[in-house]
3-phosphoglycerate dehydrogenase
Amino acid sequence: MKIYFTFEPRPDLREPLVEEFPNIDFVFHRKLKEDELSGVDVLVTYGEDLNEKRIELAKNLKWIFVVSAGVEKMPHQAIHDRGILVSNVRGIHKKPMAESILAHILAIKRVLPFIYENQQKGEWNKDTRPTELNGSTALILGPGAIGEEIGRLLQAFEVYTIGCNRSGDDVPYMNETYQIKDIMSVLPRAEIVISILPSTPETKHLLTYEHFKQMRRDTIFLNFGRGDLVSTDVLIKTLEEQLILHAVLDVFEEEPLPSSSKLWELDNITISPHFSSHSSRYLERSFEIFKPSLRKWLNGDENLENKMDILRGY
């Protein structure tokens, strides 16, 4: 049996894996090599290096383990047609992403950019108005594993949390939960709006200019899900008209964000280069999911953790 990694894990992760599964032929490369695919049974990948041709070349492929939560760049139909099992590392991002989101919110509330700027200029300047996170209301779009962790941290600051998901079913660490279709009615209640939504046909351009008009003028909007939740033109118009206080974006319709983008010119936005989930423990947590899943799969059990419906995208 051959398991092909299209990246090279650190030795402290790779060597114990090989020792634990001595009968498996592990191959580790810095990037995918098409001539290696013909005999591969399991592919471990970040998902961005797959296309229809490569799925066709991997004639023995039975399982793709995606070391990422998003699979939007993978050839969904080709994988589905072959009946290839797909699972991912959903949930491992929750700690670093929740910390990133909380850090951005606190930075804006407690005017850290203002403090840093004046330090650089050597100015003793108190001409600003810090606000408190305590007592705020936060609306979380897509309160899954990451959203729950954000809710847990926010509630520690006595923030009232409202979740929006497809079902409207109750979610841990949400004081209230609504269906996504009811989002217009709850937007005016929140000073903080956080999206962790994946990219699906239902979520593409889900937020429109009318949604931003429903938000409070003191709203902080954070998109840490996928960039196609809202069109770039709508974001620019919203921020130019100052319909909200500030936007924090970790994801964009086009990545990397072009240097010509008008978003760079706006002063009520924080641009993060899609790395809020990055952490020195990222692959460590990924292997904590992969190894138990591999043991189950070798025993003929395909009910793996984070098994995905590839056509749905989650």
Summary: Residues 34 and 54 are 7 Å apart (CA to CA).
